[in-house]
Amino acid sequence: MRSRSIVGGMVVAVLAAGSPAAAQTGNADPIMPLGEVERDMKCTGYSVFRETAIASFDVQVIDIVGGGQDGARILVRLSGEAVDGTGVGPGFSGSPFYCPGSDGRMKNAGAISETIGEFGGKTVLATPTESIVSNPPDAPGPKQPTPPTARSASRTGTGPNQEVRRRFPGARRMATPLTIGGLDQRIFGLVRQIAARQGRTVLQAPQVPARQSQAAPGNPLRPGSAVSIGLSSGAVSIGAVGTVAYTDAEKVWSFGHPFDGVGPRALILQDAYVAAIISNPNAGGEAGSTYKLAGALSDLGSVGNDAFSAVVGRVGGPPPITPVRIFTRDLDTGADQSTEVKVADETDAGTPIGVSPLSIVGPLAITQAGTETMRSAPTRVAGTMCVQITLRERPKPIRVCNRYVSDGTSPAPGGLGNLVALRAGSDVAEMLALLDAYRPSNLHVTELAARLTLERGQRQAFMRKIRLPRRVRPGQVVPVKLDVQVVRGPKRTLTFKARIPRSTGRGLRSLTFRGEDPDLADDFGGLTITLGGEDEEEDTTGPRTLKELVREIRKVERYDGIRIGKSGLRFYKHPELRIGGRASTDVDVR
After folding, report:
1. What percentage of the chain has pLDDT greater than the value 70?
2. Please, is 490 exposed, middle or buried when counting C-beta atoms within 10 Å of its C-beta (0-12, 13-18, 19+)?
3. What's the rounded mean pLDDT across residues 303-329?
């Protein structure tokens, strides 16, 4: 029998202890072979509609379409109070249904996987369970690196299913948009713009109630549970939410279709929390249809196979993890903050989609930490960031430090965030992209750590006049007086010593000094990340040796002091102010 419960304002059938989909981990349910599935079968489907409770709905088999090991689909019509008003969409992928067998037992027959463009979103396609469970938790074959030009398949409906496409031209597997938790609304808005440019959709994860986030995982994953395939967890969580289709002991099959369809993976298996079903039953795509507003709860295991008909993992030990640790300080208030994120490391899986989870998560974590520390997005900010990348293959970490100054005349577009934090995130993205492009051997990042200090105010001055001794020699260290105008501050005369370049020619010379102007915003605040969509192809041959890689990463560290002459040789860097503009003086070089 089924008990009755109020979920989200409607009465739905909730799994009782004896129902088929309530099988606990370790008790595999019987599977109905596709050959036993018949037209007009009356079945029962299971999914999460609110929080973590699994609820039921009615399923009627209409027909069998397609063919082949991964291509056959079951055409079904859904009904019941849980789905009548909304239909189904992203987040419902993998929702299983059980049909009565000839022996009277309820058997797991299939899992919802594709829409066919029907208004209302209640007539859909399902992947047979026998096809789903034919995929092992660990993808077979050698795990060779994938060329960096590889792109995510999550938009293209990967899979040998031509017969289904012929009969249902509008068939499209349920989308798996990336769900992101922990980002400020402005930062998330920026990420949404970047994703749109790359042909991807991202959704913002709901805030999980304290009673859920603080509770130990008490409900093991089972058919119908909400599940997340995570790139990261912690302060910034990124993943794709779907539904568990089948379990057998510690093995978990979900989605009923691929995430990216690239085979070997090393992602995080997580349970998920569903805040609500966002109703828009026009079957219009990722954001234009009903979807689950949901996000990851806790890490439960690892995902090792991203196949055509399922995403498969195990409850238990986590995949390889790269810790990201960020320490920030607001110099004006003295407030300190630390941010920690665990990021899946897919290095040994061959970085399957061409970009590592770290190169997606790391820059966003840096940007979020900087914005969150100041609790605002002032237009004039100064800051510094020092980054340390620790590699298993190198005894010493790679360290890069940069200084940033934002000008109120060029804020981040649309108030999308703290420009200094965005620039810092962009620098980290550039470093990690170089790591992704390295081809000679696998490199394992064992830690990404960063320290940011931020303060309000521009901390910028502009040169007005520079004075050197009348007579100088190449290579000579000479006293210098430099008149500057501090932005929204006093005029100052800076005195220091600097070296005349040895390459300076003899005779009367006019020496020109050039400073570094404030950081500027481009269309996306300078933040560049690749989410695995279809972006323009670039030359990604990458560094050829580890030494060359380290040298290229260190080039991200910029000298923002005064340079001299056309050669651009370094001349002077003030410890507190960035000095911009230009100034010239005449000297007699002896």
Report:
1. 81
2. exposed
3. 96
Indicate the DSSP class of residue 504.
P
Give me the residue label for tokens 């932005």.
487
The three-class DSSP label of residue 297 is strand
Is residue 25 over pLDDT 60? no
Pairing of strands 398-405, 381-391: antiparallel
181 forms bridges with which residues in the sheet? 237
Q: What are phi and psi of 65, to 5 degrees?
A: -130, 165
Calpha distance 163→265 (Å, rounded):
28
Spatial distance between the Cα atoms of 71 and 131, rounded to a whole number of angstroms: 9
Backbone angles phi, psi at 382, to 5 degrees: -120, 150
**Who contacts 35 (Cβ-Cβ below 8 Å, separation ≥6)?**
none
Query: Which of 293, 273, 300, 276 lies closest to 212, judged by CA?
Result: 273
Q: How is residue 300 written in tokens?
A: 């439960």
Measured between alpha carbons, how far is 323 from 340 in angstroms, rounded to an integer?
Answer: 7
Task: State CA 35 to chain mean position distance.
Answer: 41
Identify residue 101 by its one-letter amino acid code. G
HSE (side-chain half, CA atoms, 13 Å) at 193? 14
At which residue do the structure tokens 């006093």 appear? 490
pLDDT band at 5 (very low <50, low <70, confident <90, very high): very low
Strand partners of residue 293: 276
pLDDT at 442 over 50: yes
pLDDT in tens, 509-535: 999 999 998 887 664 556 777 876 444
Lowest pLDDT segment from 109-113, 236-240, 567-571: 567-571
Residue 224 has pLDDT above 90, yes or no: yes
DSSP assignments along 403-461, one per residue: EEEB-TTSPPGGG-S-HHHHHHHHHHHHHHHHHHT--SS---EEEEEEEEEEEES--EE
Q: What is the pTM of this model?
A: 0.87
The one-letter code for the residue type at 544 is R
